[in-house]
Amino acid sequence: MAEPLLKVENLYCERDERVLFDGLSFAVGAGEVLQIEGQNGSGKTTLLRILGGLSRNYEGELYWRGEPMAEVVDEYRQDLLYFGHLPGVKATLTPQENLGWYAALQGADLASIDSALQQVGLRGYEDVPCHMLSAGQHRRVSLARLYLSQAALWILDEPFTAIDKKGVAQKEQLILRHAACGGTVILTTHHELQLDGLRRLNLDQLAGTS
Length: 210
What we know:
By secondary structure, the protein is an alpha/beta fold. It contains seven helices and nine strands. The strands form two sheets. The chain has a five-stranded parallel β-sheet with strand order 6-7-8-3-9, sandwiched between helices. Keywords: ATP-binding, Cytochrome c-type biogenesis, Membrane, Nucleotide-binding, Translocase, Transport. It comes from Marinobacterium rhizophilum. Pfam families: ABC_tran (PF00005). This is Cytochrome c biogenesis heme-transporting ATPase CcmA.
């Protein structure tokens, strides 16, 4: 059996003196899509922040490609795309400019940036300063990174927020293509996903709160 890309062992985390999860263990491999489920406050975003390296408020072990995370953290970051609640968009820059640094890291050119923006419904807004765009459009600028990414692992926290039904279907197909090419996706969403082979991990059940 192939070694999983990401493995979590005996993860423990508490917040405000409340245990979110204890003894949480799971693994995801190439080509898999894992949805993290649970009611509000169950720790979904906290878990994704831990996996994304944005929180150290936990006990337990993380492994990337079979190696302890602490020993391969630089390689892990290069292989990771994290999409959180905040869009990470600079208001003074245009969508093109906001994506320029990320595209350069991925070896993508200006045409690829414009194509990505078109895919998220921002055609014609490429050169508009982001302070003139809505909050939903800021999120679309951030989502455009998915069309530029060469990362093996995508960690996506509510990626379909402010996206219409057509846009959700397009992003589902993008996730499926990423998995079909050997990529791995871990995500949270309130949408009913239509993805073949989708795995689910329910934090409520693990915490005994459901």
